[in-house]
Amino acid sequence: MLQTSSSANLVDRILGTKLETAAELIHAVRVGLPVTTIDALIGADRITTAEVDHVIVPRKTLANRKRIGTLTPDQSDRLLRVVRVIALAEETFRSKDKASIWLRRKTTALTDQAPLDMLDTNEGAHQVEVLLGRIRHGLAA
């Protein structure tokens, strides 16, 4: 399990990995995470198939990757980005359910977009992470 922070531990749990270091996680992303990690994320009610289609990998491409068994490095990186933000939201709100609601609710702090909808780009994910940091420190509601 990654030892860098409690959110890293949650990322590890969500992905169902037993990675010991950040270097191992980087390597796993570079070689491609198993497609089953997406199924696990959906099965844990952390993301829907439609959301996967929007922010990680299109359905048709996902069907092709299922035959191969692994995601591409880019797809793995997008998956990790989404998992990291979900983990940070769950840590911030101390509740899977509250985090889920917050991630899907439009907010003026993100130009009337839902945080989850912004995770299709690195900059969007960064803005969501900044907002979560502000919430954690009592600077944003």
TrEMBL record:
Pfam families, per the entry: Xre-like-HTH, Xre_MbcA_ParS_C
Domain of life assignment: Bacteria
Parts forming coiled coils: none
Ranges of residues in domain Antitoxin Xre/MbcA/ParS-like toxin-binding: 89-138
Residue ranges constituting the Antitoxin Xre-like helix-turn-helix domain according to the UniProt record: 24-84
Name of the protein described by the UniProt record: Toxin-antitoxin system antitoxin component, TIGR02293 family
Phylogenetic lineage: Bacteria, Pseudomonadati, Pseudomonadota, Alphaproteobacteria, Hyphomicrobiales
